[in-house]
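User: Predict Probable chorismate pyruvate-lyase's structure from this.
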Amino acid sequence: MRYPSFSFPVIPSTSRAQWQAPQQLNAAEQQQLTAALQEWLLDSDSLTAKLKRYYSTFEVQVIGQATIPVTHNEAQWLALDEQATVREVILWCDQQPMVFARSVFPHAALQQAGLALAELGNKPLGEHLFQQTDLSRGDIEVCAFAADSTVGQLNQQLGGVAQTVWGRRSRFATRGHHILVAEVFLSASAAYQNTLAEES
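Assistant:
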């Protein structure tokens, strides 16, 4: 299919997104976390594998991958300088935009032959990571992106409604490197439906 084009990066280095542990959300935010949304946000298994089970088709649109300035929070999480390799993609399922994903990793990880991060192309990073035998995943943090945020605006440009969209992120460790992966569920995602596919 022909994908719409977007400026890279979607999330600027000045972003101040409020990532936090699920239990730290305020009462109003907790009320937004339906059972379906929690099932997608808090699942520690591979999102790529889950999407492939849930939908008939799965495709990766690469918005961009380059060494650029990252947010202050990302630099802190990875103990990096202000620049790192950033990869942003949209995951399309059944020709609908389901997930916006942003991955951040140090240049040293890009050079790690066993990880082959420089040769990913339109292959899903998550599937690649979960094939690493020494992979470990840190705690999951969540974030609500308002409709007027850069991610919220991306969601609307992709045909989604003006709404708060939720994301999750965690830090993966493999082959001596850390990789920060954030995944935001767009309007078309089953995360916002009342019934999970597994229940249908």
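Residues 47-54 form the longest helix (8 residues).
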